[in-house]
Amino acid sequence: MTITTTCLQTIVNHAETINLNRRRVIGIQYTKSQIANVTETITRLPWQIKVKNSAYYDYADPATRALVEQLDYLDRRYVETISFSNNANLSYFFKYQGDLTPSQQSQLTVNSFTGNTLVLNVNSANISAGRYVVKQGDFVQIVGFPYPFTALGDVVYVSGSTVTITTHRPNFIDPINGYANQHVNWGNAVEFQVFCNNMPTYTFVKAGNTAAITFDSEFQLYEYTGNLVTNINEVVG
């Protein structure tokens, strides 16, 4: 039997607050004369997404029973894919800011991705000079791979057969898995592969002939990056 879960997506869809964390692992040591020595442990900068649900779930609702069963199954062990484009109330999250139309976006494919440099083939996208391919903070993701990257700066198309985007973290996708000529997801179309590393418990609050369920803490969603081999020289923390 195949177990399919959409429980973390349900939690995201009911989010009251969402906290994002992608801080580097940095140590700061001060000398006696108060000179700061800063060191960094190079990691894959996994996305950490903390979601708070204030909603009460009606235990009499079969969807609630299914939700808690899926959460208990998932626990802190299994991974689920989530997106912020599945709910109209969250569609503003990570919204694409550039000038490319959906048709033009669908034409661009991956040429190469080395370090923080993602090169895309323009193909037949017919982009006018001066148009923004991405703006700073826009999300891109190679189709078929679960890792979103963000653009460190604006990219304006000038001319030529390729465009280059500098990403917020280096590429760690094993090229053996074949991302050349793959298409790209843009903006809030990207997906995150996450597990919940704290998996909250839940409390039943009696309400007439049923009960309302509340979760006892926020959901700490952590991007899972452990299933592909790195192709850059790094110490993975």
CATH class term of the largest domain:
Mainly Beta
The appropriate CATH architecture of the largest domain is Beta Barrel
> Based on helices, strands and strand pairing, what is the structural class?
mainly beta
Note the run of SSEs as H and E.
HEEEEEHEHEEEEEEEEEEEE
Q: What do the pLDDT scores average to?
A: 90
- What's the gyration radius in Å? 21 Å
Tell me the span between the first and last alpha carbons: 35 Å
The portion of residues forming beta strands comes to 25-35%
Instruction: Let me know the number of strands.
Output: 18
Strand order of the largest sheet: 1-4-18-15-6
What percent of the residues sit in helical stretches (DSSP H or I)?
A: 10-25%
What's the shape?
Answer: globular
CATH topology name of the largest domain: Elongation Factor Tu (Ef-tu), domain 3
Q: Can you count the helices? A: 3
Tell me the count of domains: 2
